[in-house]
């Protein structure tokens, strides 16, 4: 094949070769040399190559050549599927010239395609149709389009890694089999810049052939090493005198000012720079800083309106702005012209993500891509160093295919009925098993899903003849569920001054924060909420100059750090720790690391300085082979450099079992290197030590399932899965009570099984945690459990990059006023614990001091949540069980606080997630400024929002 690749273009017909010459393609790129021959021969293939090496032409030139050479063309010959509509637009621009040159019709179809265009495509199908996975679902049901699909000979999936890791991809694998039922076998081609497990993704792409023994379809893998095409450096900017001045101008810390200055300078040194960040919050916050400095840098993320995104893309492409702060919305190859340099702000968290992002730079044939990772603290620096090394070595994470997703299965069983009206159950089962994620689907599971669909009236099940038939609900359900993306509420942000939409806000942000008068940041600008229209799902806003805006929190923005990356960061600490034990100076140890990692000495010192202090404190150093427990006051920390998912799993096990043993709630917060627990008085390291060394690893899954039944994570997922099963028309966010009822109703159904599977797959790492516990407990295990006498430098560490942006220093007057106003408008339940005869709901702002019972005159008045009727009932009860006794104590603690501190206590107790114990801690702090009281309340509310699913 290598010899054939030297003259790869000779495998193409004369018309395509002539067109190549006209376009200046005289020499094939490496992926073209290696992939064009097998693709021209009609083989299935997965092509993995860096961005800018001509992957699109690699796939499409052989396809276009074969279509052009066909004697007759009737329907759609090739489907080109991308995960983003914006990529569709780019692909059309790139392929239209080829279509005109070769006399082929190329068109695009997605959710925004006009009715006129749809009708035209149905009546006169293009030769090549660029589309999305969801649109393929819709096309399969149209009478004329189904006929057009009879002629499909090629199917190309761009950014295949993105779909392989999602339910959208699992859905697409069955859709491909549905297309094949119409067209017969066709060539399958997948394109990606980064794939960690090529064989798995190739099998995902190609599926299997049904026969006496199911066999995997043949495929080729063409992989060009991405690591050899990138040049990386990891940098922590040093703080200069100029940064001290800039910090005052930006109302932020000198460290953040140094980041802003450094990135601004990198943008100025290059013609076009993409600045990637990990969350939309950071994009908005960083973008607003550049805007205040009049830097020619725009903002791009998925919650901005389509018009706003296109506007900034065009400005960047035209050179009107020199930089673009962006999230993963720019990761998948949207055409913004030439990119000279990529800055990654903060660790990219994953190798694949860094390769995808830095690969955007040097977007020309076979050119090296240049990237800089800007880091802040020790975790950030060490993690980025590990990722940069792994990226150069091509050590990419596996994709994580959704195996046997039951809501996808339900959706596609209905899809088969949309195709055919009725189908033999065995035939449906066999077709679905051809799709790779469903190859091991048990027949009984398939039948359970069918019965669930039947009970939801989405199909008729003829048990006697084992046939499935469409019902009155089939059509409506299918068109409401073309996509497997969860149907989460989002509110349009509408600027009343310019009369146009500027983006969207997540429902959670609107509910928790967006009240009239509150100020937030979007598109790098400040907006004040004028009105929230619940019916229209619209937030009406006006622009303001106030620098104290809150940055919206969008769901799902946290990128999990894989265990292998966190382990390597732990290895840095272990290696450095041994050198510090031998009295090596920090500069010398850091210098050793500069030989192995793309860092300067200063950045390496940032990563290793806490290790030096750890050794000086005489504390054990956490590493992959050594977990360390430490505590201080009501905080216990398990230092575990095992990444988000393992730590999330370990944390849930510990919080559930320690809580069970002590009869108290245990709060938890997780990062890739430590799990921080908030425990009741009297609970310490020993309880966690016992749980880690005594819990049977084989019971991990059962413990997690029990723990998850009380967690919002499972209930939230269950509501979305239930919608995809047609078990409820639409999740309306009915709060904890509604979610509890749903959990009880669906606990013995495939809906619950799928919700649990999804949480296990996306959030947890059951097998890895089971292995880790086994190693901890084995006499000859590779992992030890050590303890420290007090909080250690590493245990007290954590991330800082981007976090400081959320509330600007000394510039949060609007936020504080919003918190104060909201608390005044909230209601509390006042209850006299002396006579127990009086209770009343009242707005906080309408309560007057002294707070007394109108019946008995006592000042022992508890201020409770307005829905805390059960606390009142428990306090009034003559005989009490242990739970009622606990609630009674809570009421008396609240009353004691109100009696001693009056309205200050009422305001603290009215806050979200603040009980008597936390309120007492907030009230007892000495403050010179009343605003600090509200800042402490806001911080506690944020803490509660982050951890409430574990309480």
* Sheet of most strands: 7 strands, parallel
Q: What's the CATH H-level homologous superfamily of the largest domain?
A: P-loop containing nucleotide triphosphate hydrolases
| CATH topology title of the largest domain | Rossmann fold
If classified by CATH, what would the architecture of the largest domain be? 3-Layer(aba) Sandwich
The total domain count is 6
Describe this structure in words.
The chain is built from 38 helices and 31 strands. It is of the alpha/beta class. It has six domains: 2-225, Rossmann fold; 228-393, P-loop containing nucleotide triphosphate hydrolases (Rossmann fold); 406-480, Orthogonal Bundle (Arc Repressor Mutant, subunit A), CATH 1.10.10.10; 490-544, Ribosomal Protein L25, Chain P (Beta Barrel), CATH 2.40.240; 619-787, no CATH class; 812-950, no CATH class. The protein has a seven-stranded parallel beta sheet, with helices on both faces. A six-stranded parallel beta sheet has the order 10-15-14-11-13-12, with helices on both faces. It has a five-stranded mixed beta sheet with strand order 20-19-23-22-21. α4 packs across α5, α18 (406-420) crosses α21 and α35 (882-901) crosses α36. It is globular.
Concise overview:
This protein has 951 residues and is α/β, with parallel strands linked by helices. Helix content is 47%, strand content 15%.
């Amino acid at each position: 094949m290598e010899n054939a690749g030297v003259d790869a273009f000779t495998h193409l017909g004369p018309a395509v070769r002539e067109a190549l010459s006209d376009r200046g393609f005289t020499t094939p790129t490496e992926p073209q040399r290696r992939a064009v021959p097998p693709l021209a021969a009609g083989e299935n293939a997965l092509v993995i190559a860096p961005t800018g090496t001509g992957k699109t032409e690699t796939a499409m030139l052989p396809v276009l050549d074969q279509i052009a050479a066909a004697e007759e063309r009737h329907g759609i010959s090739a489907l080109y599927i991308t995960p983003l509509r914006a990529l569709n637009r780019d692909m059309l621009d790139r392929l239209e010239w080829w279509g005109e040159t070769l006399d082929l019709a190329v068109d695009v179809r997605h959710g925004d395609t006009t009715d006129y265009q749809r009708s035209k495509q149905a009546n006169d199908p293009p030769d090549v149709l660029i589309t999305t996975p969801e649109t393929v679902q819709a096309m399969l049901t149209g009478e004329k389009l189904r006929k057009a699909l009879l002629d499909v000979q090629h199917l190309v999936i761009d950014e295949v890694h993105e779909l392989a890791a999602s339910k959208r991809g699992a859905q697409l694998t069955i859709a491909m089999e549905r297309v094949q039922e119409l067209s017969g076998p066709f060539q399958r081609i997948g394109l990606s810049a980064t794939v960690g497990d090529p064989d798995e993704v190739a099998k995902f792409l190609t599926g299997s052939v049904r026969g006496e023994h199911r066999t995997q379809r043949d495929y080729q893998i063409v992989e060009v090493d991405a690591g050899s095409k990138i040049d990386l450096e990891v940098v922590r900017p040093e703080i200069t005198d100029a940064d001290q001045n800039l910090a005052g101008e930006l109302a932020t810390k000198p460290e953040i000012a140094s980041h802003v200055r450094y990135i601004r300078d990198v943008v100025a040194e290059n013609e076009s720079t993409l600045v990637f960040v990990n969350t939309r919050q950071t994009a908005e916050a960083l973008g607003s800083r550049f805007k205040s400095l009049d830097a020619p840098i725009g903002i791009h993320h998925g919650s901005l309106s389509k018009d706003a995104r296109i506007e900034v893309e065009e400005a960047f492409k035209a050179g009107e702005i020199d930089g673009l702060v962006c999230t993963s919305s720019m990761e998948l190859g949207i055409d913004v012209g030439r990119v000279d340099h990529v800055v990654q702000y903060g660790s990219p968290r994953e190798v694949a993500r860094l390769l995808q992002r830095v690969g955007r730079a040097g977007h020309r044939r076979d050119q090296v891509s240049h990237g800089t990772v800007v880091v802040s603290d020790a975790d950030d620096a060490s993690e980025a160093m590990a990722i940069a090394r792994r990226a150069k070595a091509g050590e990419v994470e596996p994709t994580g295919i959704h195996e046997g997703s039951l809501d996808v299965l339900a959706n596609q069983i209905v899809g088969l009925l949309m195709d055919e009206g009725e189908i033999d159950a065995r035939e449906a089962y066999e077709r679905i098993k051809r799709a790779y994620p469903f190859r091991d689907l048990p027949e009984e599971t398939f039948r359970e899903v069918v019965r669930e669909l039947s009970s939801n009236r989405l199909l008729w099940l003829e048990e006697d003849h084992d046939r499935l038939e469409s019902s009155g609900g089939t059509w409506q359900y299918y068109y409401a569920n073309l996509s497997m993306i969860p149907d989460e509420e989002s509110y349009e942000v509408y600027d009343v001054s310019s009369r146009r939409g500027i983006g969207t806000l997540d429902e959670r942000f609107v509910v928790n924060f967006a009240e009239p008068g509150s100020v937030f940041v979007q598109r790098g600008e400040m907006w004040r909420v004028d009105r929230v229209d619940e019916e229209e799902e619209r937030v009406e806003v006006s622009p303001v100059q106030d620098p104290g805006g809150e940055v919206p929190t969008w769901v799902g923005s946290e990128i999990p750090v894989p265990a292998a990356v966190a382990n390597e960061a732990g290895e840095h600490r272990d290696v450095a720790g041994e050198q510090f034990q031998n009295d090596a100076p920090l500069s010398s140890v850091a210098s050793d690391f500069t030989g192995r990692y793309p860092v300067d000495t200063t950045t390496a010192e940032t990563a290793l300085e806490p290790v030096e202090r750890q050794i000086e404190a005489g504390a054990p150093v956490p590493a992959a082979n050594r977990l360390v427990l430490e505590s201080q006051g009501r905080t216990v920390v398990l230092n575990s450099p095992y990444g988000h998912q393992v730590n999330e799993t370990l944390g849930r096990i510990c919080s559930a079992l320690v809580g069970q043993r002590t009869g108290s709630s245990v709060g938890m917060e997780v990062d890739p290197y430590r799990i921080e627990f908030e425990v009741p008085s009297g609970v310490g390291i020993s309880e966690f030590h016992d749980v880690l060394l005594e819990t049977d690893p084989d019971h991990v899954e059962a413990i997690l399932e029990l723990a998850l039944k009380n967690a919002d994570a499972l209930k939230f997922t269950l509501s979305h899965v239930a919608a995809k099963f047609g078990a409820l028309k639409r999740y309306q966010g009915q709060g904890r009570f509604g979610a509890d009822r749903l959990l009880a109703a669906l606990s013995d159904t495939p809906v619950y099984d799928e919700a649990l599977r999804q949480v296990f797959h996306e959030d947890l790492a059951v097998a890895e945690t089971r292995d880790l516990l086994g190693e901890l407990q084995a006499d000859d295990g590779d992992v030890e459990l050590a303890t420290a006498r007090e909080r250690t430098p590493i245990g007290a560490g954590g991330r800082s990059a981007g976090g400081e942006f959320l509330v600007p220093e000394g510039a949060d007057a609007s936020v504080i006023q919003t918190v104060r106003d909201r608390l005044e408008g909230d209601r509390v339940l006042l209850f006299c614990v002396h006579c127990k005869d009086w209770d009343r709901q009242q707005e906080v702002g309408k309560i007057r001091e002294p707070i007394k019972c109108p019946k008995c005159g006592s000042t022992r008045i508890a201020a409770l949540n307005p829905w805390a009727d059960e606390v009142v009932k428990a306090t009034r009860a003559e005989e009490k069980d242990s739970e009622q006794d606990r609630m009674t104590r809570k009421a008396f603690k609240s009353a004691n606080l109100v009696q001693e501190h009056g309205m200050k206590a009422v305001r603290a107790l009215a806050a979200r997630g603040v009980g008597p114990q936390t309120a007492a801690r907030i009230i007892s702090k000495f403050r010179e400024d009343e605003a600090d009281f509200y800042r402490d309340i806001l911080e506690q509310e944020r803490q509660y929002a982050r951890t409430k699913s574990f309480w």
